[in-house]
Amino acid sequence: MRTLVTGGAGFLGSHLCDRLLADGHDVIALDNLFTGSKRNIAHLLGRPDFEFIRHDVVNPILLEVDWIFNLACPASPIHYQYNPVKTVKTSVMGTLNMLGLAKRVGARMLQASTSEVYGDPKEHPQQETYWGHVNPIGPRSCYDEGKRVAETLMMDYHRQNQLDTRIVRIFNTYGPRMARGDGRVISNFIVQALRREPVTIYGDGTQTRCFCYVDDLIDAIVTWMQYGGDDAADPVNIGATDERSMGDVVSCLGEILGRKLDVVHQSLPKNDPVRRKPNTTRVEGCIGWSARTSLEQGLRKTVDYFRKMLDEPKFM
Ligand code: NAD
Ligand code: UDP
Protein backbone atom coordinates (compact mmCIF):
# COMPACT_ATOMS: atom_id res chain seq x y z
CA MET A 1 0.00 0.00 0.00
CA ARG A 2 1.25 3.46 -0.92
CA THR A 3 -0.37 6.02 1.33
CA LEU A 4 -0.34 9.80 1.26
CA VAL A 5 -0.78 11.76 4.49
CA THR A 6 -1.27 15.50 3.95
CA GLY A 7 -0.45 17.49 7.07
CA GLY A 8 1.94 14.61 7.78
CA ALA A 9 4.37 16.74 9.80
CA GLY A 10 1.64 17.97 12.13
CA PHE A 11 0.45 16.65 15.46
CA LEU A 12 -2.06 14.04 14.25
CA GLY A 13 -0.44 13.52 10.85
CA SER A 14 2.93 12.49 12.29
CA HIS A 15 1.29 9.92 14.61
CA LEU A 16 -0.68 8.63 11.64
CA CYS A 17 2.55 8.20 9.64
CA ASP A 18 4.04 6.20 12.55
CA ARG A 19 1.02 3.93 12.67
CA LEU A 20 0.83 3.36 8.89
CA LEU A 21 4.54 2.55 8.70
CA ALA A 22 4.11 0.07 11.55
CA ASP A 23 1.25 -1.48 9.55
CA GLY A 24 3.58 -1.94 6.55
CA HIS A 25 2.56 0.97 4.31
CA ASP A 26 4.89 3.02 2.13
CA VAL A 27 4.12 6.52 3.39
CA ILE A 28 4.41 9.92 1.74
CA ALA A 29 4.01 12.80 4.20
CA LEU A 30 3.14 16.05 2.45
CA ASP A 31 3.21 19.31 4.41
CA ASN A 32 3.92 23.02 3.95
CA LEU A 33 5.25 23.18 7.54
CA PHE A 34 2.94 26.07 8.50
CA THR A 35 2.03 24.59 11.87
CA GLY A 36 3.79 21.25 11.54
CA SER A 37 7.46 20.62 12.15
CA LYS A 38 10.19 18.40 10.77
CA ARG A 39 10.90 17.63 14.42
CA ASN A 40 7.70 15.54 14.47
CA ILE A 41 8.96 13.28 11.69
CA ALA A 42 12.73 13.54 12.27
CA HIS A 43 12.79 9.91 13.44
CA LEU A 44 11.30 8.79 10.11
CA LEU A 45 13.51 10.71 7.67
CA GLY A 46 15.91 8.37 5.88
CA ARG A 47 13.66 5.30 6.09
CA PRO A 48 13.23 3.66 2.67
CA ASP A 49 9.47 3.34 3.18
CA PHE A 50 9.02 7.03 4.13
CA GLU A 51 9.21 10.19 2.05
CA PHE A 52 8.60 13.83 2.99
CA ILE A 53 7.42 16.36 0.40
CA ARG A 54 7.27 20.06 1.24
CA HIS A 55 4.22 21.20 -0.68
CA ASP A 56 1.12 23.33 -0.22
CA VAL A 57 -2.18 21.52 -0.86
CA VAL A 58 -3.73 24.61 -2.44
CA ASN A 59 -1.57 23.67 -5.45
CA PRO A 60 -2.21 20.45 -7.41
CA ILE A 61 0.29 17.62 -7.23
CA LEU A 62 0.71 14.42 -9.26
CA LEU A 63 1.43 11.27 -7.24
CA GLU A 64 0.55 7.57 -7.48
CA VAL A 65 -1.02 6.32 -4.25
CA ASP A 66 -3.66 3.85 -3.03
CA TRP A 67 -4.92 5.74 0.03
CA ILE A 68 -5.05 9.45 0.88
CA PHE A 69 -5.55 10.88 4.36
CA ASN A 70 -6.21 14.62 3.94
CA LEU A 71 -5.25 16.24 7.25
CA ALA A 72 -3.59 19.42 5.97
CA CYS A 73 -5.18 22.40 7.74
CA PRO A 74 -4.19 24.43 10.79
CA ALA A 75 -6.35 23.18 13.67
CA SER A 76 -5.89 25.57 16.56
CA PRO A 77 -7.90 28.82 16.64
CA ILE A 78 -4.86 31.14 16.78
CA HIS A 79 -3.29 29.42 13.79
CA TYR A 80 -6.38 29.16 11.61
CA GLN A 81 -7.32 32.78 12.38
CA TYR A 82 -3.81 34.05 11.55
CA ASN A 83 -4.65 34.04 7.83
CA PRO A 84 -8.34 33.15 7.55
CA VAL A 85 -8.49 33.41 3.76
CA LYS A 86 -5.64 30.91 3.52
CA THR A 87 -7.49 28.61 5.94
CA VAL A 88 -10.53 28.58 3.65
CA LYS A 89 -8.30 27.96 0.63
CA THR A 90 -6.55 25.09 2.39
CA SER A 91 -9.83 23.33 3.21
CA VAL A 92 -11.58 24.04 -0.09
CA MET A 93 -8.82 24.02 -2.72
CA GLY A 94 -6.74 21.50 -0.78
CA THR A 95 -9.64 19.04 -0.59
CA LEU A 96 -10.47 19.63 -4.27
CA ASN A 97 -6.89 18.94 -5.27
CA MET A 98 -6.75 15.76 -3.21
CA LEU A 99 -10.11 14.62 -4.63
CA GLY A 100 -8.79 15.26 -8.14
CA LEU A 101 -5.75 13.15 -7.32
CA ALA A 102 -7.94 10.40 -5.81
CA LYS A 103 -10.15 10.40 -8.91
CA ARG A 104 -7.20 10.22 -11.32
CA VAL A 105 -5.54 7.26 -9.62
CA GLY A 106 -8.64 5.59 -8.11
CA ALA A 107 -7.46 6.05 -4.54
CA ARG A 108 -9.60 5.83 -1.40
CA MET A 109 -9.62 9.17 0.42
CA LEU A 110 -10.32 10.14 4.03
CA GLN A 111 -11.02 13.75 4.97
CA ALA A 112 -10.23 15.02 8.46
CA SER A 113 -13.33 17.00 9.36
CA THR A 114 -14.16 18.35 12.77
CA SER A 115 -16.71 18.70 15.54
CA GLU A 116 -16.65 22.40 14.60
CA VAL A 117 -19.06 21.59 11.75
CA TYR A 118 -21.67 21.53 14.56
CA GLY A 119 -20.67 25.07 15.64
CA ASP A 120 -22.10 26.09 19.03
CA PRO A 121 -24.44 23.11 19.09
CA LYS A 122 -28.10 23.18 20.05
CA GLU A 123 -28.18 19.36 20.13
CA HIS A 124 -26.26 17.63 22.90
CA PRO A 125 -24.49 15.24 22.53
CA GLN A 126 -23.99 15.84 18.83
CA GLN A 127 -25.05 13.11 16.42
CA GLU A 128 -23.92 12.89 12.79
CA THR A 129 -27.47 13.68 11.63
CA TYR A 130 -27.35 17.13 13.32
CA TRP A 131 -26.73 19.89 10.76
CA GLY A 132 -25.11 22.25 13.21
CA HIS A 133 -25.36 25.82 14.45
CA VAL A 134 -22.51 27.64 12.77
CA ASN A 135 -21.91 31.36 12.40
CA PRO A 136 -20.99 31.82 8.70
CA ILE A 137 -19.33 35.23 9.19
CA GLY A 138 -17.50 35.06 12.53
CA PRO A 139 -13.82 34.63 13.42
CA ARG A 140 -14.12 30.80 13.54
CA SER A 141 -16.03 30.59 10.24
CA CYS A 142 -12.93 30.22 8.05
CA TYR A 143 -12.26 26.91 9.77
CA ASP A 144 -15.83 25.70 10.39
CA GLU A 145 -17.25 26.62 6.99
CA GLY A 146 -14.07 25.51 5.19
CA LYS A 147 -14.49 22.06 6.71
CA ARG A 148 -18.21 22.03 5.88
CA VAL A 149 -17.41 22.74 2.21
CA ALA A 150 -14.73 20.03 2.32
CA GLU A 151 -17.44 17.59 3.48
CA THR A 152 -19.74 18.77 0.68
CA LEU A 153 -16.99 18.15 -1.90
CA MET A 154 -16.32 14.68 -0.50
CA MET A 155 -19.99 13.70 -0.75
CA ASP A 156 -20.40 15.20 -4.23
CA TYR A 157 -17.34 13.38 -5.60
CA HIS A 158 -18.65 10.22 -3.99
CA ARG A 159 -22.11 10.57 -5.58
CA GLN A 160 -21.01 12.07 -8.89
CA ASN A 161 -17.82 10.11 -9.53
CA GLN A 162 -18.32 7.04 -7.31
CA LEU A 163 -15.18 7.94 -5.38
CA ASP A 164 -14.41 5.77 -2.37
CA THR A 165 -14.50 8.39 0.42
CA ARG A 166 -14.51 8.63 4.23
CA ILE A 167 -15.26 11.67 6.43
CA VAL A 168 -14.21 11.62 10.08
CA ARG A 169 -15.48 14.38 12.38
CA ILE A 170 -12.69 14.59 14.92
CA PHE A 171 -13.46 15.96 18.39
CA ASN A 172 -10.83 17.56 20.65
CA THR A 173 -7.71 15.42 20.59
CA TYR A 174 -4.48 15.94 22.53
CA GLY A 175 -1.15 14.29 23.22
CA PRO A 176 2.58 14.41 22.53
CA ARG A 177 3.68 16.54 19.51
CA MET A 178 1.00 19.18 19.92
CA ALA A 179 2.75 22.43 19.14
CA ARG A 180 3.74 24.04 22.43
CA GLY A 181 2.49 27.49 21.42
CA ASP A 182 -0.56 26.59 19.38
CA GLY A 183 -3.03 27.95 21.93
CA ARG A 184 -5.14 24.84 22.43
CA VAL A 185 -6.21 24.29 25.98
CA ILE A 186 -4.30 21.14 26.93
CA SER A 187 -0.94 22.31 25.60
CA ASN A 188 -1.48 25.78 27.08
CA PHE A 189 -2.33 24.46 30.55
CA ILE A 190 0.55 21.97 30.64
CA VAL A 191 3.19 24.40 29.40
CA GLN A 192 1.98 27.14 31.76
CA ALA A 193 1.89 24.76 34.72
CA LEU A 194 5.37 23.35 34.00
CA ARG A 195 6.71 26.91 33.80
CA ARG A 196 5.03 27.69 37.12
CA GLU A 197 2.90 30.35 35.45
CA PRO A 198 -0.84 30.69 36.20
CA VAL A 199 -3.00 28.67 33.84
CA THR A 200 -5.32 30.76 31.66
CA ILE A 201 -8.98 29.79 31.90
CA TYR A 202 -11.08 31.59 29.31
CA GLY A 203 -14.42 32.64 30.76
CA ASP A 204 -15.55 31.01 34.00
CA GLY A 205 -14.23 27.56 33.02
CA THR A 206 -17.63 25.84 32.99
CA GLN A 207 -17.57 25.25 29.22
CA THR A 208 -17.08 21.58 28.40
CA ARG A 209 -15.15 19.42 25.93
CA CYS A 210 -14.39 15.69 25.69
CA PHE A 211 -10.67 15.06 25.25
CA CYS A 212 -9.48 12.09 23.22
CA TYR A 213 -5.91 10.81 23.54
CA VAL A 214 -4.04 10.76 20.23
CA ASP A 215 -3.33 6.99 20.10
CA ASP A 216 -7.04 6.22 20.42
CA LEU A 217 -7.90 8.70 17.69
CA ILE A 218 -5.33 7.31 15.24
CA ASP A 219 -6.57 3.79 15.87
CA ALA A 220 -10.11 4.94 15.04
CA ILE A 221 -9.28 6.68 11.78
CA VAL A 222 -7.09 3.84 10.46
CA THR A 223 -9.82 1.33 11.32
CA TRP A 224 -12.51 3.56 9.81
CA MET A 225 -10.52 3.80 6.56
CA GLN A 226 -10.89 0.01 6.26
CA TYR A 227 -14.59 -0.06 7.11
CA GLY A 228 -16.52 -1.30 4.08
CA GLY A 229 -20.20 -0.88 5.04
CA ASP A 230 -22.72 0.65 2.59
CA ASP A 231 -22.75 3.78 4.74
CA ALA A 232 -18.93 4.13 4.85
CA ALA A 233 -18.94 7.45 2.96
CA ASP A 234 -21.25 9.15 5.48
CA PRO A 235 -19.58 11.25 8.19
CA VAL A 236 -18.65 9.63 11.48
CA ASN A 237 -17.92 11.24 14.86
CA ILE A 238 -14.67 10.23 16.52
CA GLY A 239 -13.94 11.36 20.03
CA ALA A 240 -14.00 10.61 23.71
CA THR A 241 -17.27 10.89 25.61
CA ASP A 242 -15.97 11.82 29.06
CA GLU A 243 -17.24 15.42 29.25
CA ARG A 244 -15.06 17.76 31.33
CA SER A 245 -15.19 21.44 32.17
CA MET A 246 -11.99 23.47 31.82
CA GLY A 247 -12.00 23.95 35.60
CA ASP A 248 -12.05 20.17 35.91
CA VAL A 249 -9.06 19.83 33.55
CA VAL A 250 -7.08 22.24 35.76
CA SER A 251 -7.86 20.17 38.86
CA CYS A 252 -6.89 16.95 37.10
CA LEU A 253 -3.58 18.45 35.95
CA GLY A 254 -2.92 19.79 39.45
CA GLU A 255 -3.34 16.28 40.87
CA ILE A 256 -0.90 14.85 38.34
CA LEU A 257 1.68 17.54 39.15
CA GLY A 258 1.04 17.20 42.87
CA ARG A 259 0.26 20.87 43.55
CA LYS A 260 -2.60 23.31 43.33
CA LEU A 261 -2.29 25.35 40.14
CA ASP A 262 -2.65 29.13 40.07
CA VAL A 263 -5.42 30.25 37.75
CA VAL A 264 -6.00 33.51 35.89
CA HIS A 265 -9.31 34.12 34.11
CA GLN A 266 -9.32 35.74 30.68
CA SER A 267 -12.23 36.70 28.44
CA LEU A 268 -13.98 33.95 26.52
CA PRO A 269 -13.20 34.05 22.77
CA LYS A 270 -16.09 34.98 20.46
CA ASN A 271 -18.32 32.04 19.40
CA ASP A 272 -16.55 29.68 21.81
CA PRO A 273 -18.88 26.64 22.05
CA VAL A 274 -20.43 26.22 25.51
CA ARG A 275 -20.67 22.42 25.42
CA ARG A 276 -19.34 19.73 23.14
CA LYS A 277 -19.70 15.97 23.31
CA PRO A 278 -19.95 13.44 20.51
CA ASN A 279 -22.61 10.82 20.16
CA THR A 280 -20.38 7.87 19.22
CA THR A 281 -23.06 5.25 18.60
CA ARG A 282 -22.17 5.05 14.91
CA VAL A 283 -18.43 4.45 15.28
CA GLU A 284 -19.04 1.96 18.11
CA GLY A 285 -21.67 0.09 16.11
CA CYS A 286 -19.75 -0.02 12.81
CA ILE A 287 -16.18 -0.77 13.94
CA GLY A 288 -16.50 -1.42 17.68
CA TRP A 289 -14.29 1.55 18.59
CA SER A 290 -14.46 3.67 21.70
CA ALA A 291 -11.82 5.81 23.41
CA ARG A 292 -9.92 3.80 26.01
CA THR A 293 -7.39 6.21 27.53
CA SER A 294 -8.64 8.20 30.52
CA LEU A 295 -7.91 11.93 30.73
CA GLU A 296 -5.63 11.23 33.70
CA GLN A 297 -3.58 8.61 31.77
CA GLY A 298 -3.37 10.76 28.64
CA LEU A 299 -2.43 13.91 30.54
CA ARG A 300 0.41 12.05 32.29
CA LYS A 301 1.91 11.02 28.94
CA THR A 302 1.48 14.51 27.53
CA VAL A 303 3.05 16.11 30.61
CA ASP A 304 6.07 13.78 30.19
CA TYR A 305 6.42 14.89 26.57
CA PHE A 306 6.28 18.61 27.34
CA ARG A 307 8.60 18.22 30.32
CA LYS A 308 11.28 16.72 28.05
CA MET A 309 10.64 19.32 25.35
CA LEU A 310 10.91 22.27 27.75
CA ASP A 311 14.16 20.81 29.12
CA GLU A 312 15.78 21.09 25.69
CA PRO A 313 18.19 24.06 25.72
CA LYS A 314 16.47 25.94 22.87
CA PHE A 315 13.16 26.02 24.75
CA MET A 316 14.50 27.16 28.13
P1 NAD B 1 -1.65 20.57 13.14
O1 NAD B 1 -1.73 22.05 12.95
O2 NAD B 1 -0.62 20.02 14.05
O3 NAD B 1 -1.49 19.83 11.75
C1 NAD B 1 -1.90 20.35 10.52
C2 NAD B 1 -0.78 20.14 9.53
O4 NAD B 1 -1.20 20.61 8.24
C3 NAD B 1 0.49 20.91 9.89
O5 NAD B 1 1.61 20.05 9.80
C4 NAD B 1 0.53 22.03 8.86
O6 NAD B 1 1.85 22.48 8.59
C5 NAD B 1 -0.14 21.38 7.68
N1 NAD B 1 -0.75 22.35 6.73
C6 NAD B 1 -1.53 23.41 7.04
N2 NAD B 1 -1.89 24.05 5.91
C7 NAD B 1 -1.33 23.37 4.89
C8 NAD B 1 -1.32 23.54 3.48
N3 NAD B 1 -1.99 24.56 2.89
N4 NAD B 1 -0.63 22.66 2.71
C9 NAD B 1 0.06 21.64 3.29
N5 NAD B 1 0.10 21.42 4.62
C10 NAD B 1 -0.59 22.28 5.41
O7 NAD B 1 -3.11 20.10 13.60
P2 NAD B 1 -3.66 18.66 13.98
O8 NAD B 1 -4.28 18.78 15.31
O9 NAD B 1 -2.65 17.62 13.72
O10 NAD B 1 -4.86 18.53 12.93
C11 NAD B 1 -4.78 17.69 11.79
C12 NAD B 1 -6.13 17.67 11.09
O11 NAD B 1 -7.12 17.16 11.97
C13 NAD B 1 -6.62 19.04 10.63
O12 NAD B 1 -7.25 18.91 9.39
C14 NAD B 1 -7.62 19.42 11.68
O13 NAD B 1 -8.60 20.28 11.18
C15 NAD B 1 -8.19 18.07 12.07
N6 NAD B 1 -8.74 18.09 13.43
C16 NAD B 1 -7.92 18.07 14.53
C17 NAD B 1 -8.48 18.10 15.80
C18 NAD B 1 -7.65 18.06 17.05
O14 NAD B 1 -8.21 18.14 18.15
N7 NAD B 1 -6.35 17.88 17.00
C19 NAD B 1 -9.87 18.19 15.95
C20 NAD B 1 -10.67 18.24 14.81
C21 NAD B 1 -10.09 18.17 13.56
N1 UDP C 1 -9.29 27.54 26.67
C1 UDP C 1 -8.97 28.01 27.93
N2 UDP C 1 -7.67 28.39 28.14
C2 UDP C 1 -6.71 28.32 27.21
C3 UDP C 1 -7.06 27.84 25.92
C4 UDP C 1 -8.37 27.46 25.68
O1 UDP C 1 -9.79 28.06 28.84
O2 UDP C 1 -5.55 28.68 27.50
C5 UDP C 1 -10.69 27.09 26.45
C6 UDP C 1 -11.33 27.59 25.17
O3 UDP C 1 -11.95 28.86 25.38
C7 UDP C 1 -12.35 26.50 24.88
C8 UDP C 1 -11.66 25.24 25.43
O4 UDP C 1 -10.63 25.68 26.29
O5 UDP C 1 -13.54 26.73 25.61
C9 UDP C 1 -11.06 24.37 24.32
O6 UDP C 1 -10.25 25.20 23.52
P1 UDP C 1 -9.33 24.65 22.33
O7 UDP C 1 -8.79 25.85 21.62
O8 UDP C 1 -8.38 23.66 22.86
O9 UDP C 1 -10.37 23.85 21.42
P2 UDP C 1 -11.77 24.25 20.74
O10 UDP C 1 -12.23 25.56 21.28
O11 UDP C 1 -11.48 24.29 19.30
O12 UDP C 1 -12.65 23.15 21.18
List the helices and strands and how they pair.
Blueprint: E1 2-6, H1 11-22, E2 26-31, E3 50-54, E4 67-70, H2 77-80, H3 84-105, E5 108-114, H4 141-161, E6 165-170, E7 173-174, H5 185-194, E8 199-202, E9 208-210, E10 212-213, H6 214-226, E11 236-238, E12 243-245, H7 246-257, E13 263-266, H8 281-287, H9 295-311
Parallel strand pairs: 1-2, 1-4, 2-3, 4-5, 5-6, 6-11, 7-10, 8-13
Antiparallel strand pairs: 9-12
The protein binds nicotinamide-adenine-dinucleotide and uridine-5'-diphosphate.
Uridine-5'-diphosphate binds next to α5 and β8.
3D architecture notes:
It is a single chain. The protein has 2 domains: 2-174 and 213-238, NAD(P)-binding Rossmann-like Domain (Rossmann fold, 3-Layer(aba) Sandwich), CATH 3.40.50.720; 185-209 and 241-277 and 292-315, UDP-galactose 4-epimerase, domain 1 (Alpha-Beta Complex). The protein has 316 residues and is of the alpha/beta class. It has a 7-stranded parallel beta sheet with strand order 3-2-1-4-5-6-11, with helices on both faces. It has helices at residues 11-22, 77-80, 84-105, 141-161, 185-194, 214-226, 246-257, 281-287, 295-311, and strands at residues 2-6, 26-31, 50-54, 67-70, 108-114, 165-170, 173-174, 199-202, 208-210, 212-213, 236-238, 243-245, 263-266. It is globular, with a radius of gyration of 19 Å. Helices cover 37% and strands 17% of the residues. The chain has 9 helices and 13 strands. Bound molecules: nicotinamide-adenine-dinucleotide and uridine-5'-diphosphate. Uridine-5'-diphosphate binds at residues 76-77, 172, 184-185, 188, 200-202, 207, 209, 246, 268-269, 272. Uridine-5'-diphosphate (UDP) binds next to α5 and β8.
